[in-house]
Design goal:
CATH topology: TIM Barrel
Number of strands: 12
Structural class: alpha/beta
Largest sheet: 10 strands, mixed
Order of helices and strands: HEEEHEHEHEEHEHEHEEHEH
Helix content: 25-40%
Shape: globular
CATH superfamily: Glycosidases
Length: about 400
């Protein structure tokens, strides 16, 4: 009953905060992951409909790559491109390019309006070795800095090392971080996220079973960023502590060297697994606290990647349940996990490929193209507004900040 009342209140109440988010600490923070990787054929990048479509030259019912459809009503027309998809009103459906500054501006305006702290921007280290994508990711980063400063939100770099191996990896990190800090000067932004006086950088992927990077090189990477004065967070496997399932067994020494750990939970459980996931997290937190590390549990709203992985993937694989799944995760953490040396990571702000987006998405089938099928906010039987998950995330952020303040006062 308490959950139902909580969600009902969110439907009629909008969380708003015009204050500038304190970028000096991770205490009390609720941070989104942000992909920024959706491109269009008219955005000047000469790539096409990347991530929107499996065929970059066209976006039609047979090539769609996403499982949730964005609410397109507020995007500037100049940031959009018509596709070969048809809406229920017979008009062509349009999508946005993440490299358009108006898109980033709108997203950070939403963050301010709903009382959200900020994001960790994904930077795919393998991708930026290609000059085209190096320029694209730099555009996104530059636009993000401007929007974060305009709306008083925080941002930081999160490296994703998927697809890479030991060969030249450390030099790739060194060259890219040098560009980010000396040319783009991202860490000099007043809204770049810091902790204990250090700029935050996250490395996602070390220790995962599918990643071909050794513990030795992993330790060198962490040592490098620490030598540059960074606060280094590890986006690590969910079963990092036990070294099984999604984690390699020989990475214990690597995990221990991170300043903070954020175990990847997306796709690991559904609503029936929230309790068992909490058991894992409580034990995780006991260990990280004993070592002086921060802990950042990953919360996600649901999961679906059927269009990207036809015909093998199941549509609406982990249902959102009208907010119940995400709310149950948040409640379990707020009620059972100390807010001391903890921040929350929400996956993801704009991830439509895997159906985990928190930003404004289509409420009903009538708000999406006729074909293919998309996970809309009423898929599980509830009628919800397009901004429902922004409101829900805003309420969780407010509640976590209260818990964090209490924790800090008790120290």
């Amino acid at each position: 009953m308490r959950l139902l009342i909580f969600i009902t209140l969110l439907l009629v109440t909008s969380v708003s905060s015009a204050s500038i988010v304190d970028a000096s600490t991770l205490d009390g923070k609720v941070i989104f992951g942000y992909q920024g990787w959706f491109l269009t054929s008219n955005d000047g990048n000469n790539v096409g409909f990347r991530h929107w479509s499996k065929n970059f030259d066209s976006m039609n019912p047979n090539t769609v790559n996403i499982d949730v459809w964005p609410d397109m009503t507020e995007y500037p027309v100049s940031a959009t491109q018509k596709t070969d998809l048809v809406l229920t009103n017979g008009k062509p459906a349009s999508v946005f390019s993440s490299t358009h500054p108006g898109v980033m501006d709108l997203h950070f305006k939403w963050m301010q309006n709903y009382g959200l702290d900020g994001v960790f921007l994904q930077r795919f280290l393998g991708e930026v070795q290609d000059g085209r994508f190096f320029n694209i990711r730099n555009k996104v980063t530059t636009n993000m800095r401007a929007a974060a400063e305009k709306y008083g939100r925080t941002f930081a770099i999160m490296y994703d090392i998927s697809g890479l191996n030991d060969n030249g990896l450390l030099d790739k990190f060194k060259n890219d971080w040098k560009y980010l800090t000396e040319t783009l000067k991202v860490t000099q932004s007043k809204q770049y996220q810091k902790h204990n006086g250090k700029p935050v950088v996250t490395i996602w992927g070390l220790g995962f079973g599918h990643v071909d990077i050794s513990p030795q090189v992993s330790l060198q990477i962490i040592a490098y960023f620490k030598s540059k004065g960074c606060y280094v967070i590890g986006g690590v496997p969910f079963y990092w502590r036990t070294g099984d399932h999604d984690s390699k067994s020989n990475f214990g020494a690597v995990y221990q060297q991170f300043d903070a750990l954020s175990p990847w939970a997306v796709g690991r459980f559904g609503d029936s697994g929230v309790k068992s996931a909490l058991d894992v997290r409580v034990t995780d937190k006991t260990l990280t606290s004993s070592r002086g590390q921060y802990y950042a549990p990953v919360l996600f709203p649901g999961f679906s990647w059927a269009n990207m992985n036809k015909p093998t993937a199941r549509f609406n694989e982990i249902p959102r349940l009208g907010g119940k799944f995400f709310s149950n995760q948040a409640t379990s953490i707020l009620e059972n996990l100390s807010a001391k040396k903890t921040f929350l990571y929400l996956a993801m702000f704009d991830e439509m490929d895997e159906g985990t987006a928190f930003f404004k998405t289509a409420s009903t089938k009538a708000d999406t193209p006729v074909s293919p099928a998309f996970v809309t906010l009423d898929t599980d039987g509830q009628k919800l507004p397009s901004d429902f998950y922004l409101k829900l995330a805003g309420q969780v952020t407010a509640n976590f900040k209260k818990a964090s303040k209490t924790s800090l006062r008790s120290q």
